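Workshop exercise sheet. Pairs work together: one partner reads the sequence aloud, the other fills in the structure field after running the prediction. Swap roles for the next sheet.
Pair: D.N. / O.F.
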Amino acid sequence: MRIFTTRVVGIRRVEAADIEAIVETLVEASADSSEYAYLIPDRDLRMPALKSFYTNLIEDAVLPGRGSVWCTVDHGGAAVWHWSTASPLRAFKDDPCASLYPGFKGRATVLELLLQNREPQSRHVVLTHLGVAPQAQGKGRGSTLLRDRLKILDVAQMPSYLVATNFRSRALYLRFGYVDHGVPIELPTGASLYPMWRDFRPAQAT
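Structure field:
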């Protein structure tokens, strides 16, 4: 098990040497998320699929014009951002590893349609994933990753969108200026996802 300090650490843009450790963090953080539990109900099958998915997702997000990935310097937390024109779920839907699982493609199509129907059409960026390793949670890593990027988006006058997967993450995003974007998305399992929107904050006059 990895050990993380209790202090808040700095962040930086993800490089090739970081990807393996960041994938591990995101897999650990999202292994029981409702959308992935819906896509691949068997947790033992879900874990290797998530590893393949996140590897592809990060490699996609760092391509020019696609998005960006940021991590804490100790790899305890990571945030994946995409431009609104990107379709990161397709990286999972088309992943040959994930597609081997029974019923996966049909469920992935349903989830993709549910998400696409709710995303705003106006210009924005998407916080595709924000994850903190379980043993590093509650120590400010998620807040640090959010705060840094949102400051930059405010300067660029760029709104952002995300889908929170539970009440705990929704509460975090509310503290940073996100608001609910319509009613929750109801998955066939009965679980809910929470679309959220944040307008950029104009610079304070001096």
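Discussion prompt: The helical segments are 19-30, 34-39, 43-61, 89-93, 104-116, 141-155, 167-175. What would you look at next?
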